[in-house]
Every structure is written in C-alpha cells, then in structure tokens.
Design brief:
mainly alpha; 4 helices; about 65% helix
C-alpha cells in the first residue's frame, strides 16, 4: 500500500495540503476536515483556547514544553491510527473482492 498516498489523504484532511497540492482523486473524494466552521475546526479552536488559558496560568508566553509535547504526540498518534484505519479498510475491501483501484492503489 502506498504510504505517501495515505499520508497525502491525511495531510489533506487536516488542512496541511490544499486541493492543488494533492492527486485529483484525493481532492474529489476526500473532505478537508478542518475547513473554517467544521467540527474539527471547532474542536481545534477549543484546544487552542485551552492551551492559551493554561499558558496564562503558567505565565509563559511561548507555551509550556510539556503541553506542546502532549499536543505533538497526540498529533503523531492520530496520524498513525488514521494510517492503520485506512489500511484495515483497504484490507476489508480487498477481502470482499471489490475493485480497490478507485482510490489510488492496486493489489500489490
């Protein structure tokens, strides 16, 4: 399975890549989940404000190293789990005998 393709899907979903940066198959079939006003955008906004309040309580302008580490590690874990879910979904689809070439990869 092409991990670069899976990473492009993830990066597009989180808003790291724009439509012009990805394979047209991704842009046509995947939703960018962090568009302004979206569910993920609202959650991320809450995270940002909570981090800001915590930073104010700790009186640190640059942010607390441990809080920043927690966020970075959660983002890394989210990417890992998303990749695995994609792979499990592809395996499930393959086991049904369905054609999986639609989404950027063939049986390898």
């Amino acid at each position: 399975m092409r991990t670069d393709f899976i990473d492009d899907i993830y990066d597009y979903m989180i808003g790291f890549l724009r439509e012009s940066d990805v394979d047209p198959v991704i842009a046509e079939n995947v939703v960018s989940e962090f568009e302004e006003g979206s569910y993920c955008d609202r959650l991320y906004e809450e995270i940002y404000f909570a981090q800001t309040r915590l930073r104010e309580r700790l009186r640190r302008s640059g942010g607390d190293k441990d809080v920043l580490l927690i966020i970075k590690l959660l983002e890394t874990m989210m990417r890992y789990i998303s990749r695995k879910m994609y792979q499990y979904g592809a395996m499930q689809l393959k086991s049904t005998g369905e054609n999986i070439t639609w989404f950027g990869f063939q049986d390898e």
